[in-house]
């Protein structure tokens, strides 16, 4: 089976979050299972890696010369679509709807030019929605994964219609139109034969007004048509492995974790109180405002080490704790430090308002760090109650209460060690999810494909 993933980022070449991590891990496992797998993403100016240019030419409707670069790694063919729109620093910008419309229009023509048209095109999040729509027009079977429904790629019609290269019949309430806007997330939803989200719980939640971001009607219809599925994300267990991690004192079980904790404590001059770690985007979605409001109580019993960047108000609020002896805040992305926090903390806080899947709790458990999580999305699916600590309300008090529960459990040394051992033996490898996706592609290939609107 020939599969081509289309996404805006892929680790280690481009990454801003969990989407890049998924695209850096899932395709390689699918290749090991026997599929012929590629990934197509933008050729950013700041791409980490030097692709070999394998094609250059013109694409109808796309301004300027188009080029394609290639890297082959782990049995996966990584293709990078070079467009003038992506020759600037960084990954994402305010004009991204127009930029990713150009990207989406270029996907099928360059795959045809490279003789690389797959059996199934698998788009990821709104940035790939237009590529899925063009695949539908050409009769190419498509799958589409929602990694975060909050971000939808909206722009006002009719201006945005001219960017897409799609026929006018597709801009209707049953198609890509959404309250007078083009909606590229909706393009993927309505044009793919099968749609997935990154956890079973999130697949249920997004069919409700609370989590559906205005698209709950579309998603409920997909559920009733058996076209919406929740497939839990896996974890790259080679990249995140305390037995081989060069960033931390290496350990294989709960008994060896103490050295990592001691190293983190020494790195930041922390006292003997237990360590609560946080590695997160600083965003309302992640509940970072709840964490900040809870800090006066948390710091009575915990050292709190936070790594992350994002919303300026949340960054400023954490900066305000800079002189507190039990609070460490490191702004921005720092992967080596992230490894040290995952390994060295005893507990790990994720007070998310919603969480499609989450990778941080998977990493934390692999390192024997017990999650304190809100009961939502993939956090429900992945954090067993005999391992971590869950709370229902999105409030600072509920977070603080769960941390008190964790502190009490920490006082029972044998019980805590048993929780840590269970956490470290949980299987969150990509093998199961990768097989599930390959089965889903079979359903995509066998699905009826009605003609797209013209």
Task: Report on this structure.
Synthesizes alpha-1,4-glucan chains using ADP-glucose. The longest helix has 18 residues, at 96-113. This protein has helices at 18-32, 96-113, 129-137, 161-164, 184-191, 200-205, 216-224, 258-268, 288-301, 312-319, 335-344, 360-366, 377-382, 396-410, 413-425, 431-446, and strands spanning 2-6, 36-42, 52-57, 66-73, 76-82, 120-124, 142-146, 154-156, 177-178, 181-183, 194-197, 228-230, 275-279, 303-308, 327-331, 347-350, 370-374, 389-391. 37% of the residues lie in helices and 19% in strands. It folds into 2 domains: 2-234 and 431-446, Rossmann fold (3-Layer(aba) Sandwich), CATH 3.40.50; 254-425, Rossmann fold (3-Layer(aba) Sandwich). The protein has 16 helices and 18 strands. The mean pLDDT is 96. The protein has a 9-stranded mixed sheet with strand order 3-4-5-2-1-6-7-11-12, with helices on both faces. Strands 15-14-13-16-17-18 form a 6-stranded parallel sheet, sandwiched between helices. Strands 8-10-9 form a 3-stranded antiparallel sheet.
How would you summarize the topology of this molecule?
Layout: E1 2-6, H1 18-32, E2 36-42, E3 52-57, E4 66-73, E5 76-82, H2 96-113, E6 120-124, H3 129-137, E7 142-146, E8 154-156, H4 161-164, E9 177-178, E10 181-183, H5 184-191, E11 194-197, H6 200-205, H7 216-224, E12 228-230, H8 258-268, E13 275-279, H9 288-301, E14 303-308, H10 312-319, E15 327-331, H11 335-344, E16 347-350, H12 360-366, E17 370-374, H13 377-382, E18 389-391, H14 396-410, H15 413-425, H16 431-446
Parallel strand pairs: 1-2, 1-6, 2-5, 6-7, 7-11, 11-12, 13-14, 13-16, 14-15, 16-17, 17-18
Antiparallel strand pairs: 3-4, 4-5, 8-10, 9-10
Helix pairs in contact: 1-16, 2-3, 3-5, 8-11, 9-14
